Amino acid sequence: MWSEFWVSILGVFGGAVILVPALMWLSDRFLGQGLAKDLKRFETQLERVSDLVSRRNEREFAVVEVAWEHMIHAVAEVENRLTSARLNIPTFAVLGDEELDRVIGMLPFSELERNSVREAPKAERGAICAIYETTLAYRECSKAWGELKNWLSTHEIFMSSDIHRRFRSIENHVTHALSIVFTSAVAKEALPTAQRIEIGQLFGATVSTEKRELGGAIRKRFGFYE
Q1: CB of 133 within 8 A of CB of 87?
Q2: How far is Cα 44 from Cα 50, in angstroms, rounded to an integer?
Q3: Is the dihedral of CA 183, 189, 190, 194 positive or negative?
Q4: Contacts of 123 (CB under 8 A, 6+ apart)
Q5: DSSP class of 120
Q6: Which region, left, alpha or beta, applies to residue 15 given φ > 0 means left and ψ of -120 to 50 means alpha?
Q7: How far is Cα 210 from Cα 194, in angstroms, rounded to an integer?
Q8: Contact present, 199 and 83 (Cβ < 8 Å)
């Protein structure tokens, strides 16, 4: 059929919608109404396909956007809580009683943990805070990691394989950081400085590069150009 012939031609050159009106005029002028009707049906089909692709891209972008937000949050939690730059523990030995009570009351721990710090000897308060901070860091980083991992698992079908693979690679680095701190958290010990430095180096180099490359892949995928 003529319609099958034109479908094959238009499929080769792509962007066929813009050619259909011209072809319909030519077919009506030289080949008769039959081909014009076939081309009209083909134009309708192309519009439907275009609408379907558009909605699919919108869905994919929405999924990738949320995945990006989860990834940024998980990476930030690790960088803020598990790297060598963290450990903002007060110098308790120089605080007076009133200032001490105010500072302890602002610590991001449970009331039971704050009371433990308050009742401990001055020389031990910093070490106790480091332990509680390690436990808190592991808990909050695990929560952010879980949200990222769950989103990637349940929405994999809506992402391109390349973008999903890049997200997974960063997620694996977060998993590695958690595996480093896990032993200290379970043993109720402070995360050693050497391990904080190790995590900081990993995220400062490898993860930073992968995050930048993922952003580039997303922009390319959805036609965003700088």
Answers
A1: yes
A2: 10
A3: negative
A4: 93
A5: S
A6: left
A7: 23
A8: yes
For residue 29, what is the DSSP state? I
pLDDT, one tens digit per residue, over 69-111 is 999 999 999 999 998 655 678 888 788 888 888 999 999 899 9
Amino acid code (one letter) for 127: A
CA 87/CA 193 separation, integer angstroms = 9
User: pTM, whole model, 2 decimals?
Assistant: 0.74
Q: How far apart are alpha carbons 41 and 30 in whole angstroms?
A: 19
Read off the pLDDT of residues 22-77 as tens digits, 9 standing for 90 and up.
Answer: 555 555 555 555 656 665 666 666 555 554 455 567 889 999 999 999 999 999 99
Pull the structure tokens for residue 180: 């480093």
Reading the block at residue 89, the tokens are 């523990």
**Apex CA 141: angle with CA 130 and CA 113, to 5°?**
35
Helix (H) or strand (E) holding 47: helix 33-81
- SS3 sequence, 106-119? CCCCCHHHHHHHHH
The residue whose two tokens read 């992402």 is: 159
Alpha-carbon distance 152 to 171, whole Å? 9
How many other β-carbons are positioned within 10 Å of the β-carbon of residue 168?
15
Cα dihedral value 118, 119, 120, 125, nearest 10: 0
- Which two tokens mark 111? 């009331």
Q: CA 64 to CA 71: how far, in whole Å? A: 10
Kindly state the tokens that stand for 109. Answer: 């721990």
